[in-house]
Every structure is written in structure tokens, then in C-alpha cells.
Amino acid sequence: MIVNLEEFLREHAIYFELYDHDPIYTNEDAVIMKKEKGFTGTETKALFLKGKSGQYYSFVTFTTKSTDFKRLKQAVGEKLAIVKPDEMEEVTGQKVGAVTPLGYEASIPMIVDEELFEQEKLVFAPARPDQTMVIQAEDLKKIIGLLGNELFIYSEN
Q1: What is the DSSP code string of 83-124?
Q2: How far apart are CA 46 and CA 34, in angstroms?
Q3: Chain centroid to CA 140: how far?
Q4: Which of 11, 35, 48, 157 is deepest in the core (most CB within 10 A)?
Q5: The pLDDT value given to residue 138
Q6: Which residue has the higher pLDDT, 34 or 146?
Q7: Which strand (E) or helix (H) includes residue 46?
């Protein structure tokens, strides 16, 4: 269900940085690891969501930002809820705290916080708690397009 992002980005000649480290599952641990490894970029978080229709979605935003579910509903046209950990693990093979925002099969739409496109670099877990990936924010739309995911924009305006 999830592509190997390292292979995918290499195959498409898209710049990325990949850091191996001890497993991290919290934002606090991520901040410590970022300092230890010396990489830069905007920390992101991914939420695996499910619509009233049963459709799954991947939502990526800032780690420091709380989510307005009314705005999410406006973005996709249906009420969304966070998928329970056991269901998420069954569907994606991922554990809470290491959810990737990218790399899902094309049937899973992406919701992206519009302010992420204004950043220089984006930092996230590539579906593994023992790795951190950094990409150029300007490549995000291209990556989503190459993966074939429908893109929805989350806006607080």
C-alpha cells in the first residue's frame, strides 16, 4: 500500500535527504534528533483520516498546528475523523508516531496545509520510525502528482 519513498524519489531524480536514527514516536524526540543530526526544515505531522463515506485520506500539516476539522470538511466535502491506531496499522502497516504523509497508493487522496508550500524544506517520517526524510517544499505537488494521489488544499482562511 505504501511505496518505498527513497527508491521512488531516486527513480524520479527528486532531491531528498534521508537520516537514519533510533526510533522516534513523539515530536519532542524528533526535535532532539533534528539537533543531533543537524538537518534543517519545517517539521510536519501526518494524520491518517477516514471520511464518512469510508474513504481514507492522508493529511499533512505543521507539527505545531492544531487541526480544524470543520476546515478539513470544507476542503474535501465530507466529515473526517482520525483513524484508530489498530485500523491504521491494518490498512497502512504503520504505527502511530511514524505515519508518512506521502507514498500511498493513488486511491488515497492527500490533504496538504497550504502554508507548507511556502516553506523551504519539509521534514517527515517516511513510514519508518527510525528514519527521517527531508524534501524541498517546492517538490511536494510534483511528488503527489507522480504518485497519482488526488490533492486537496487545507486552508485556514
Answers
A1: PPHHHHHHHHS--TT---SS-B-TTS-EEEEGGGGGSSEEEE
A2: 17
A3: 10
A4: 48
A5: 97
A6: 146
A7: strand 42-51
